[in-house]
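1st attempt posting a full record on here, be nice pls
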Amino acid sequence: MIRLPAGRRLDQLPAALRTMLGATTLRMYVFVIATGLLTALALLLSPPATVSYDVGTLADRTVKAPRSVAFVSETLTEAERERAAAAVAKVYTRDPAVVASSRDRLAQAVAAIGRVRADVAQTRDQRITSISRLTEVAISPQLAPLVVDMTTAEWDAVSKEVDNALRTLYQPGIRPEQLDTARAAAATSLPPAWTDRQKAVGAELVRQFLEADVALDATGTSSAQQAARSGVPPVQVQVLAGEVVVRESTVVSSLDVEKLRALGLVNTGIDWPGAIGLTIWAVLIAAVLALFVERYATEAWNDDRKMILVILSLLAVTVTARALVPGHTLLVYFIPFAAVAMIITVLVGGRTALATQIAGALHVGIMWRATTAREFATGALSVAVGNLGVVVSFSLVGQSTDPVGAAQLAVAALLSGAGSGLLAFAGMAIFGHVFRITTVFELRELADPNHPLLRQLLLRTPGTYHHSLLVANLAERAAEVIGADPLVARVGAYYHDIGKMRNPSAFIENQTGTNPHDELDPMVSAGIVAAHVRDGLSLADRYHLPAMIREMIPAHHGTSVVKYFYQLAQQRGQNPDDASFHYPGPRPRTKEAGIVMLADGTEASVRSLAEKKPDAIRVMVERIVSDRLAEGQLDECDLTLRDLQQIKNAFCELLLGVYHERIPYPEDRIARIPPASQAASDR
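the predicted structure (as tokens):
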């Protein structure tokens, strides 16, 4: 604790502090603490672009994505895991002790009835009463006379066969929910030649001793469900710049909240670990700035007013950036941050201005993110132009008369901005490859026709390769018109059918002779065709295709039916099981995957048309898109009805260009060049 000497007033505290700590040390502490706390507070403030939406709340405004981002969705991943767990068949176990106990008690009941029937000391009515009062079995008063009145042959047959009937009913196993049905079917397990009273008595005996011998294995079922959940890969979601994340007056879903969080647009309150980290960051920046100014700009350092101006300038830069990031991708570059440097240069000094701008740039940098090549290029150009503007301004303010020096500074400013963008862009490519983050570079490498998988596709399945090229053209064009990622759609289309390389002749586009399916059962053929999804995923894993491209392989068929072979099985009167003719799925989860599914079905169907006239093409495109929509194959991707209409128009535009009518060239209209000898004789 600091104690004032006797007789000193409170207004003399600053002088006392300077005396005890030293003027420079006290100024350092005050500057670092004040600057660090103020800039930390600015960094912690939620920008106006952020929202405080929770799941289930009603959005009061429309929110668009200021930039592109890809993230793993916990909501969709958990939904897929729950779906996989629900699809797991329950595990049941049989208890053989139940059957043994039932048979033993039935035998005891039969023996007890036999003893009463054999007791000649009792009259008929007494035997009926005795049978009704047996503890081994409950015989109703209506049924007891039938038991007593049976002939010896009838009773002997009943006593021998009821055990067989009981075992017959137990043979498939009886679950608790099946017990009533099994008891109702007791009479059907008895010999049909029996008399009515034999059947009535035998059915009652079997019915009373029938119990459930199959129970749910909760542990086994839970283990199987957990294994199914563990086998579900994380679901990746891609949000594109300009995409509507939340619409006004709609209920906010958990996926919407995840998208907002990935974009940094959610105000989640105080994140204490993050707040502490930003505070430490701000204090460190303030400390470095203070050390620089104290050592290299002593005059400014000793002037309280100038240092207050430095603090306010740094705070203004930080607050302005916080207000624009992350909500505005390009607007931040149009803010005249260089004006701050100019003001400090004139009023405080050039070195102090440089240090303050560096500190401000570091604060802006910790808030700014870029994910596309265009953003890096725009940033580099903006920095270069900004640097050039600063150099020109400084030259004009300083009335420089050295044109060579000014030119050198201008070149340095341009190179600095361009170099910053180039270095950031190169770092994105290198680190994206090292950490397996899909970048535009990797997608372009995958789109190269010389990629090993595409070369194999061309050489081993030329028909499939040609089909994939046409699908890629359709998908790319459709992605462009609806604002999806054209490059992702094109690359996904290139690789969606790579699984056909395992068995090329099973697919009609690669067949040059007989069709092997002519000799196979339709269900077997459907299994062979559907297997190209599994084979494609295996190749995708081997060649380390990115998750967003790997998704296209199962998603381009979704969970649809192998329709041709299913209908063929129906025509042959086989009553096929619908589940045996389904593709494994899952259904498309991204716009690009949905586009590839539609492009694949459209290209194959239009190619099968006998006459590819414009009206027929339009009808086929409309039918394919409508069928996929009606089947629910597009339920999990973000394609809207407006998107689907634009996709159909894009498909028709491209297909009409591919299959346009051509002018016939009859051979008799082709001009032939006469032989040289004939030409000479004609002359």
